[in-house]
């Protein structure tokens, strides 16, 4: 009985995740790759503001690109200077 339970637990562990991960040790990112070798998600541990706790956050490559473009636009907008009220020079 013990051997059957151990074999079942091992089978569940091996079959638990259909995708594989590739860890990029230098950047702290983990790429989740499907069976065809296509990156489906990119994960990393992000620290929550005001705490010492880290939370694993996963995004698709498209989401990461959109966030990067949005951040770049906001940076360029903020570098132009502060907004002034209309009619004040």
TrEMBL record:
<keyword id="KW-0732">Signal</keyword>
<feature type="region of interest" description="Disordered">
    <location>
        <begin position="62"/>
        <end position="89"/>
    </location>
</feature>
<feature type="signal peptide">
    <location>
        <begin position="1"/>
        <end position="21"/>
    </location>
</feature>
<protein>
    <recommendedName>
        <fullName>Lipoprotein</fullName>
    </recommendedName>
</protein>
<feature type="compositionally biased region" description="Basic and acidic residues">
    <location>
        <begin position="64"/>
        <end position="77"/>
    </location>
</feature>
